[in-house]
Structure formats: structure tokens, C-alpha cells
Amino acid sequence: MKIDILTLFPEMFSSLNESIIGKAIENNLIEINLINIRDFSKDKHKKVDDTIYGGGAGMLIKPDVVYDAYKSIKGHQNAKTIYLSPQGSVLNQNKVKELSKDTHLILLCGHYEGIDQRVIDEIVDEEISIGDYILTGGELPAMVLIDSVARYIEGVINSESAKEESFSEGLLEYPQYTRPEIFLNRSVPEVLKSRKP
User: Fold this and answer.
1) Total count of domains within the chain
2) Is residue 1 within 8 Å of residue 104, measured between CB atoms?
3) Which of 49, 58, 66, 141 is the residue whose CA sits 20 to 30 A from 161?
4) CATH code, domain carrying 93
């Protein structure tokens, strides 16, 4: 799967090079490209935002810089573009599984007061939220989406692990235990002791 990320803060994504996602990138199961929206500013100070028509607090990311950044992505016409936004539908396991079947995702990360609606209407296929609360930007939600979707890409994790995970069958996972058998005077349940780790 190819994932392009449109962001003002590409350095925030360095953590994707760690753990399971890092190994998936290393093994060419996932390709992640970071596109800095600021690189497409025509302003000499690399400004990407402006005041909001009609008033209101804060600044809005301009449509032209986002559009130019989007158009720079090879194959953007055939990708699914997702805007990480508190107004979007809430991410759940069914949506994660659905997205894992796509071959190319473009994730658009907002910041400040958001992004001019005209470019959202032009390029975005779907808006997704990771919960009913406000964050400073779309970078953390993009990482949550990448982490959850990557687990369903063949070869990223053991397929049996994905089948038994919480929410896969609509239920939470049961409590689990490993060695030592006794920890702080708490023992592994007797029923589980016949199946050693």
C-alpha cells in the first residue's frame, strides 16, 4: 500500500519508522511519502494560512497550497483522499478493514482552524475523525489511521493475530497472562495453567 501524507509538520511522522510499521516499511509492504504543504507556498515567508472570510478566530489553510501539494502526488487521480477532521465519520474497525483494501491513500492533515472548504470539496473523498474531541492538527489522527490500517495489510502482522484481536468479532479481548506464574501474589487463573506460554 502507498500512503501519501499532506502535512505542515512532516517531522511528526518520524515515529512511523519504529516497531511493526517500521518493519513493514523496511519490507516494502507499505510505502509512506511525506509532502510538506509549506513547500508549495508562493509567499516568500512560506506562509500557508490567512484570515477567515466573515470573521472568526484563528487562521485557515489556503486552498491553493493544498491543491498544488495534492497535484504533486504521482497517481493522485486514482487514490482515495481522506481529510482527518473532527467533522468526519468516526474511525472504527469496519472502516479500518475497508481502507486496508485500498492500494493508495492520501491523508490530508489540517491545522489551525482547518482548511478552506473549496479544496476539501475538490479533492477529498472522505472525512474521518478518530473521536469526538479536538486536536491541534490532523497528524496524530493520520498516525492512528496508518497504524490501524497497516495491521490488515498482508505480511505486516501474523494473520491469526489480526483475527483474534479486540473488535474483530465485535467483542473486546479477554484478559491474558504470561510468565511469571505468580506476580505480586497474583496467580495466573487455574483454567489457563494447563496451556503453558
Assistant:
1) 1
2) yes
3) 141
4) 3.40.1280.10
